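User: Some background: our group keeps a shared notebook of sequences we're curious about, and every so often someone picks one and asks for a predicted structure to add to the entry. Today it's my turn. The entry only has the sequence so far, pasted here. Could you supply the structure so I can complete it?
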Amino acid sequence: MRERGGRTIAMPIANTDKETIQGAIIQNVAAGSMLNTDEALAYSDIAKKSFKHEAVSHSAGEFVRDDVTTNGIESVFAVMKRGLIGIYHHAARNILVATLTNLPSGSMKAMSKTIR
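Assistant: Of course. Here's the predicted structure to add to the notebook entry:
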């Protein structure tokens, strides 16, 4: 999760189902916040849970619409993947958490959390 112009919260997620993804959002994002996502079904109905929500349709070739974009979080993933490729071909959970913790600072400050 990436706050526009602010913090990044990165953590391992056990599943990519709607309940797990939305649970992580609810635990880490302030109610009333604007969420910019892609069209993944895991985000459907998130607006009913005290969030504003806009989605871009990557499958239709849409990556930016006005202020709606996922480019910020996509760049976080790119930095993480570049950090793993060349050193590891597979990352165990503890390595992934360490990688997330040590992402470059500057405009993005990464925090890692473990799944309870």
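Suggested note for the entry: Strands lie at 8-9, 34-37, 52-55, 64-65, 68-69, 110-111. The mean pLDDT is 78.
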